[in-house]
Fold TPR domain protein.
Amino acid sequence: MAKKVIAILMVMFGFSFALEKNITMSEYLDEAQKALKIAYESGAHIKAQYEYGKALGFYNIAKEQASDFQTENAIEAAKKSIEWSLKALEKTNTGETK
């Protein structure tokens, strides 16, 4: 079950963004926020503290860059946040602990 969740999330976040080229900065921020929420609800803030912390940090950087109208930097930080959220989910669902 856990592997199916990870696979679905990777498909949702990875391939949908890879195929679309006209994604706005706010859409990236929204997806990063959703990924963080899913990771938090799965217990990543407890079981994968490092990865979840990195995801949260990159999300905060993305928000800061967006508020300064640095679109490219905000998008890159949001992408990294999504990647780290997925890593946190993977670690959480495989049962590894910090």
